[in-house]
Specification:
Oligomer: single chain
CATH architecture of the largest domain: Orthogonal Bundle
Strand content: under 5%
Radius of gyration: 19 Å
Structural class: mainly alpha
CATH topology of the largest domain: Tetracycline Repressor, domain 2
Number of helices: 16
Helix content: over 70%
Largest sheet: none
Shape: globular
Number of strands: 0
Order of helices and strands: HHHHHHHHHHHHHHHH
Number of domains: 2
Length: 290
Amino acid sequence: MKPLLSSYVTLTKPTIMLLVIFTGATALLVEGSLIHEPVKFFLVLLGLYLTGGCANALNQYFERDIDARMDRTKKRRPLPMGDLSARHALIFSVSIGVTGVVIFAAVFNWLTAMLSLGTILFYSLFYTLYLKPNTSQNIVIGGAAGAMAPVGAWAAATGTMAVAPWIMFLIVFFWTPPHFWALALFCKDDYIKAKLPMMPVVKGDDSTLNQMFLYSIVLVAVSLGLIAFGGGALYAVVATALGAMFLKKCWDAKKNKTEKQIRGLFGFSIVYLFALFFTMIIDRFVSNVL
C-alpha cells in the first residue's frame, strides 16, 4: 500500500494537474499584473490545484468500480487498490474543492470562484456521470473542464475576461481529442471491458484517426490566432513549426496506423502543448525587453 499522503495526492491526478497549473501560470505571466505579487500568484495556482484536484478526485470516486475493471487504472489508483476508502476519498474531494473556491472568492473575486465551481460540477458530475458513459464525444465536450485554467487564472488576476485566455482555452480544448484518442487507441480493450463508448470502440480506428487529424488542423489554426492578440514574432515562428510537426505526426499515424506512430503522436502531443505555452511565456518577456 502507498503512504496515505501519496494516495490522496494520486487522487487529484497530479500529472494532469501539472498541465492545469502550467497553463494557468502561463496566463498569469502573459497577463503580467501578479508577477510582482508572489503570494497572490501562488494562491491562484493553489486554487487551481485544489479545484481541479477536487474534480479529478470526484471523478475517481464516481468511477471506482470502472477503474477496478481496467488494467490501466486498477493497479494505479488508490480506490480500486484499497489504499483509501470511498468515504474518505469523498470527504477529501469536497474539502479541497470548497477550500479552492473560498480562496478565489475571498482573495480574488466571485467571477473566478464561480468559474472554478462550475468547472468542478461540469467535470465531476456532467462529464463523469452523463457524458462519459453515454457518448463517444465525451472527451471532446468534457475537455472544456481541463482547458479552463488560463481563463480562471486571468479572471483571478483581473476580475474580467479577455480574448487571449480564451484562445489558450481553445488550444487546450482542441488539443485534447487528438491527445486522448491516441491513448484510447492503444487502451481500447480496457474501454471495451469497462463498457465505455470511447471513440475507437464506437467508431473504429480509421474514423478516430480521421477525426484526430481534423481536430489537429483546427488546433494549429487556433494556436496561430494568438498572434493577433498579443503573440509576437517568436511565438509565431515556434507555433508554426510545432504545428507543422504535429500535423505531420497526425497524418503519418492516420496513413500508416502503426502502434509505434500512434504512441509517438501521443508523446509528442505532450511536448507540443508544453512547448507552445512555454513559448508564450518567453515571447511575453522578450516583447517587454524589446
